């Protein structure tokens, strides 16, 4: 614990040590300190990590003094006594502007929300309670020189709980919004946040709908020098506010109406008036630029003319005040009684350069709160001492009741006089009001004015003429009277309220109920001061009916700076807040008191008799405890329900002992726990060891067993092998013996048989064996041959090899027979035509084979016979009709001319009876030679196609002479000629003469045709040349 957490325990108690303690704690981020149950809170001006959910858990359901001081401890205490003891609570948060009151109220609310019950409905309520803050702050907070987020209204929130402590809802009352801020803000301050938030954060289309522009400079009401505040994100806050409004329960159209109203106020600020003289000499005000008015009327749904008339008819002031929008006006209290926790966060005491009616009211309210603090603290103490039967001596402190009286006294209080002035007929000004004050309050100790009756302040130049000064409990404040009367009157001329009531806008209608023509009320409405006084009065009595919890906020410096502790400033606040007196009051009597039960509960471990349980009554237990601890009797006294402890030292002693005892207990618990832990660990280890060992043993034994088993098997197998081999040897021997016996027996039998049969064997056996062997060999040979026979093709020359040379002749004969047989088989498959063709070919072979060199090339050529198809050719129609026999051969041949040896083409036709020669082109018949006239045919031995048809001398055809022809189908032509001749029975065979020189009869002469091997220069062609009259030489290329 840094310093002393509770000032009551501070020793020695002086102002210096008090401040020293605060500073020490502040420097160590301990911003909270107790005075008994009062929490002093120093504004850290930076976020500290002490509001986390973990912290909430830490403080939840713990005793107030158990943990280091915290606002959560106070909230927890309040919430628990509300829930468990059914005592209504109020949390009073006081302090100067910027000291952290609003933050504190939010912390309290969030703590309560965090610890109270859960559930869908409850969470919704909690969320609504928490989200009411951003909405209220947007419309009620503004940046001031003291505080960037200063509350410009007082707020009192009653949170209602059911019997279980679950929140049911809340009622928020607000007090006197600083309306004048809408119209005018002091230097360095801003208007209410909502204006800036709307312009920076609303989407473009929303702004367009509201006829607004994003530029602050377009609006007279938005002060420009401090329009933006560092660390304040207006745009983001706008979204937060919208969201919060939704959660709190604003409908979409309601939100829209509110924003329209805000926009209308901005527009209103831009309307300017100019004076104008009328013909009747009266002055009148006229609106300069009507555009803003028009837009405003569109927003609010009013008629422009109505509003314009209302503005100008009674010319009162250039700029109109905003009418406060009351948010969540207190609803009628529920009928069934609920537990209530009130949180009061009201504007703090304020001293500005220029203080007006608002500051006066604010400071009056703070006076009242200080009053209630003094009263309740003292009364509570006093009553408690009396209740408990203790004698009480009064403690000196400054009672600010005189100041309250100065302000609120019904006869001559300042507020009463202000009201009187306002109601007085005749000209009333702020000056007449000040005059009145000067006469009536002149004697008051706390009132100062330049012109007070006795003029005792005439020489005080810090006091201007139109001002008065009040010595508040928290300091002197100079008030300027200007505007007091108007603001107190807070009058809205009926024309205006009626004009507004006529608007076609539900929210506006609701805000100006007095404009309803049906309810015209001629009575003056109560003044602002009167209303405020009354509401403060109600608030005070409300607070008094509840159990108070105090949070006293202190500002550590004036610069909103973190880590700066301004001793004199804190000292000033501590003084006027009466903190020292508070401590003294707590200490003068008894510094501490505690009911017997919790006391016994807390300290029972300090005595053997009470630990761990005391069976008797709590008071007796505490008595036993105190006696046992030997606390001097004057240090405490036993009262009715509580024990009172006079000196903090005694409490320290008890706490110290308890701490020691707790440490011992902790050690004991630790010791037992450690012992238990070690032992259980050991037991576990032991158990594991046994398991491991048993497993290992099992494993080892298994291994050993397997080894033995293996060895045994081995030995066994060797032995068995040895035995088996032995047996085998014996068996083998036995078998051999048996075999030997059989062999011997066989031989013996054989010898006997041979001896007996020798004589028969010698006579026949040799021949028989020979025959048998030969038979066997032949059988084998034929069977082998049968399986190895070659194919049936006549040209297949293969034949299996003979196995024995003595079979040579047989083998060759068999081969011949087989060949003949397969040839026969082959032939038997021929048709008649094919047979004729082969016969022809055979004849050609007989005629020319090895005789003429041309022959081999003809073997492959089939004998087609008719190469020309005369009958089908129309050209030769005549010719074919002339030849009446069947044409056996038709071809083109060359008829060799005797004169030059050159040839000319002729058709050559052969029938059974004739040879016909005809012109190739015309088909004209040239010669028709009956075959009977043919004597012979001559041809060479060479490869040429020359042949001569020699005619019988004396025949009819012989007249023209022989024919020397050449043909590509020489072999075929001659063969066919020969064949016809051989087939006809009546004719003799045609002679074929093959030689390289023969004679040809040309008419009269015989010419010799000689064939020679041509020289290579003649190429491959056959050429015929006339050598002389009697010789034609045919040169034939050498056959290769
Ligand atoms: N507990 C706190 N932790 C951090 N900052 C704080 C705390 N209390 C106050 N502040 C800072 O001080 C400023 C003023 O506090 P606020 O509660 O608005 O003052 P008040 O309501 O008393 O005028 C806050 O805006 C915040 O920046
Ligand atoms: Mg505030």
UniProtKB/TrEMBL annotation:
Residues of the region (Actin-binding) are 536-558
**Source domain of life:** Eukaryota
| Record-linked PROSITE patterns | IQ (PS50096), MYOSIN_MOTOR (PS51456), TH1 (PS51757)
Keyword Zinc-finger among record annotations: no
GO cellular component terms given for this protein: brush border; cell cortex; microvillus; myosin complex; plasma membrane
Give this protein's Gene Ontology molecular function annotations.
actin filament binding; ATP binding; calmodulin binding; microfilament motor activity
Domain named TH1 is located at 852-1038
Per UniProt, ATP binds at 95-102
Q: Which Pfam families match?
A: IQ, Myosin_head, Myosin_TH1
Q: Which residues form the Myosin motor domain?
A: 2-659
Record keywords: Actin-binding, ATP-binding, Calmodulin-binding, Motor protein, Myosin, Nucleotide-binding, Repeat
Q: Which GO terms describe its biological process?
A: actin filament organization; actin filament-based movement; endocytosis
InterPro entries referenced in this protein's UniProt entry, alphabetically: IQ_motif_EF-hand-BS, Kinesin_motor_dom_sf, Myosin_head_motor_dom-like, Myosin_TH1, MYSc_Myo1, P-loop_NTPase
Where, per UniProt, does this protein localize? Cytoplasm, Cell cortex
Signal peptide residues on this chain, from the entry's feature table: none
Family matches, as CDD domains: IQCD, MYSc_Myo1
Q: Report the main location listed first in the record.
A: cytoplasm
Q: Which family does it belong to?
A: Belongs to the TRAFAC class myosin-kinesin ATPase superfamily. Myosin family.
- For this entry, the protein name equals Myosin IB
